[in-house]
């Protein structure tokens, strides 16, 4: 995690930065005892469950499970990777970070990425100048104005124009001395079929730069101004651009999304721009792909409510069916793998009246009717129920088809309470008893259950036993006890692999005070383990040497009994199989462990 940033610089940043000051810029914090509390920025809540410890320099939300140190907060809040978060903090506190400690392969990858981003930035400037200059640029500008886009929107989104012809951008980079093979890798130019030279990918098109959350230009979309096909042309996948993990406009809308606690998700560049033109700035657009789990995870950092906007019933139904899998079956959560509690986004489907897309609807009706329609937009399952009833009616045959349509979506919902409520809603709307619908849903669950056999254990299993959690909390909050942890080999009795790994890291790090917990978090790559440490470090418990020793003795004795029973079972199995070699090995192991336990002299 820290291979890109020297360790001494990470420590310098950590010592210079103050987590309370940083988070106070995003969250209104109020002092309560030793800590500060406020409303969590990562999920919607009315009662503060977000806690920040100035002593430990960590944060933790008891509502959604998000937690970590100052680096973790910046990564989650701004969507940054660790090196980017560290560099951002370094700039803030005037700390210089030299570029070193990179392997040749890492240097090559970073150099390639930076080179491609620079090429994309140069291309964006080229397209922008082409829009604002020359006769062809005037025609493109007139097209944009005709679509109702103001100069402010054009400039905010860096909209440009690719001139008509085969080599305008090609010649620009040739004159700039940029290797054309590298420009080809960016997707901006293509090799000719005969292998002799290149030509421009985008020609005579309005250009929409795709900018990520860090303000880097990662790709482009191009639209024709007539009926030529294809209407839209997008950058190919590159080392810096993946359409399934990118959203158009998020870099500008994220603050508004967080403020309004909602986001509109549309399917096209112009739809997104029109929403912004009409003052609806909490909006993003997918880039030629259906909404993905990665998209939802990105948006869940900022909002609890998502409104998917479609221009036809058919598109809405297809999306709703996909969303069942994304939002319910996969249990997408606000903290990306939260091991404490999963939060499902409040998702709604807005289908505009026939013949309208967001662009035409806003032009004809205006902002207020659009927002009112969004407020009335049904949730995913409610939408599917309404659409199915509308399609099949409420005759006997119609009701059968409605239940058949809803069987799979309802079966995909893993939340028993939610599934029960939706079944009740469906039963009331079509006049069928709940138990009959439930029976049909169980039929639809059979295939799902087969797939779920290989699902990870539930969140409680990931957390480990209560006693194991207490051991880790004690090690974090009362590090003076660590020599006794070593003496009694406590770690070997921790069964949960996450907690055992954390315990080993604590000992290896030689934690000596709670102030070092933030530094400990910087040494751990696993986000799940970071959240576990944050949670256990923030739990308020009183520790003293006597209480700690009582816990250690209780834990080790329990572990020894469990271990002895396991060995006894293995001995019995070896005797039953007449496996003398295994039996001898197990008896020696049993004797060795007995001697070791006597030496420890547990009270």
Task: Describe this protein's structure.
It is a single chain. This protein has 603 residues and is α+β, with helices and mostly antiparallel strands. The protein folds into four domains: 7-92, DNA Primase, Chain A (Alpha-Beta Complex); 104-241, DNA primase DNAg catalytic core, N-terminal domain; 252-452, Dna Topoisomerase Vi A Subunit, Chain: A, domain 2 (3-Layer(aba) Sandwich); 461-600. The protein is 55% helix and 10% strand. It contains 27 helices and 15 strands. It has a five-stranded antiparallel beta sheet with strand order 1-2-3-4-5, sandwiched between helices. β7 and β8 form a beta hairpin. α3 packs across α4, α16 (380-392) runs antiparallel to α17 (396-411) and α17 packs antiparallel against α18 (416-430). The longest helix is centred in the C-terminal third of the chain and has 32 residues, at 545-576. The protein starts with 6 loop residues before the first helix and ends with a helix. Residues 329-343 and 449-461 have low confidence and may be disordered.
């Amino acid at each position: 995690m820290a291979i890109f940033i020297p360790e001494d610089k990470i420590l310098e940043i950590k010592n210079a930065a103050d987590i309370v000051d940083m988070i106070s810029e995003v969250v209104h914090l109020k002092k309560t005892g030793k800590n500060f509390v406020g409303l969590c920025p990562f999920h919607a809540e009315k009662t503060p469950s977000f806690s920040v410890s100035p002593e430990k320099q960590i944060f933790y939300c008891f509502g959604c499970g998000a937690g970590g140190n100052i680096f973790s907060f910046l990564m989650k809040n701004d969507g940054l990777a660790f090196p980017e978060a560290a560099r951002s903090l370094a700039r803030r506190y005037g700390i210089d970070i030299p570029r070193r400690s990179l392997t040749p392969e890492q240097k090559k990858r970073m150099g390639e990425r930076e080179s491609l981003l620079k090429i994309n930035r140069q291309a964006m400037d080229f397209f922008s100048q082409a829009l604002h200059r020359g006769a062809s640029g005037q025609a493109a500008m007139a097209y944009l104005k005709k679509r109702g886009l103001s100069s402010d929107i054009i400039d905010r989104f860096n909209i440009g124009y690719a001139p008509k012809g085969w080599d305008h951008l090609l010649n620009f980079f040739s004159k700039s001395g940029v290797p054309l093979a590298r420009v080809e890798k960016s997707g901006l130019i293509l090799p000719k079929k005969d292998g002799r030279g290149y030509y421009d990918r985008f020609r005579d098109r309005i250009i929409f730069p795709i900018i990520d959350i860090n303000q880097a230009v990662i790709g482009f979309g191009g639209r024709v101004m007539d009926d030529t096909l294809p209407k839209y042309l997008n950058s190919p996948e590159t080392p810096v651009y993946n359409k399934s993990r990118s959203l158009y406009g998020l870099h500008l809308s994220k603050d508004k999304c967080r403020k309004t606690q909602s986001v509109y998700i549309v399917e096209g560049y112009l739809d997104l721009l029109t929403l912004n033109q009409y003052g609806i700035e909490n909006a993003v657009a997918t880039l030629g792909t259906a909404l993905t789990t990665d998209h939802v995870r990105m948006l869940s950092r900022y909002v609890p409510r998502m409104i998917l906007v479609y221009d036809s019933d058919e598109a809405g139904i297809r999306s709703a069916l996909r969303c069942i899998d994304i939002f319910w079956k996969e249990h997408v959560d606000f903290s990306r793998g939260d091991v404490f509690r999963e939060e499902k986004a409040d998702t709604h489907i807005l289908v505009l009246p026939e013949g309208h897309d967001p662009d035409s609807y806003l032009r004809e009706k205006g902002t207020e009717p659009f927002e009112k329609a969004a407020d009335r937009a049904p949730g995913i399952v409610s939408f599917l129920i309404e659409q199915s009833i509308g399609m099949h009616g409420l005759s006997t045959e119609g009701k059968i088809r409605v239940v058949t349509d809803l069987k799979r979506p309802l079966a995909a919902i893993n939340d028993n309470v939610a599934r029960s409520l939706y079944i009740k809603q469906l039963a009331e709307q079509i006049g069928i008893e709940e138990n009959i619908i439930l029976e049909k849903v169980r039929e639809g669950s059979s295939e799902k259950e087969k797939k779920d056999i290989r699902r990870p254990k539930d969140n409680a299993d990931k957390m480990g036993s209560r006693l194991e959690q207490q051991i880790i909390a004690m090690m974090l909050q009362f590090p003076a006890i660590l020599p006794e942890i070593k003496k009694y080999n406590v770690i070997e009795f921790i069964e949960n692999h996450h907690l055992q790994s954390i315990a080993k890291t604590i000992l290896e790090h030689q934690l000596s005070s709670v102030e070092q917990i933030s530094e400990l978090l910087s040494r751990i790559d696993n986000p799940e383990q970071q959240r576990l440490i944050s949670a256990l470090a923030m739990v308020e418990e009183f520790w003293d040497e006597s209480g700690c020793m009582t816990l250690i003795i209780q834990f080790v004795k329990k572990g020894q009994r469990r271990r002895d029973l396991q060995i006894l079972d293995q001995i019995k199995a070896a005797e039953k199989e007449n496996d003398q070699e295994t039996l001898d090995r197990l008896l020696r192991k049993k004797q060795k462990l007995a001697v070791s336990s006597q030496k420890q002299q547990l009270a």
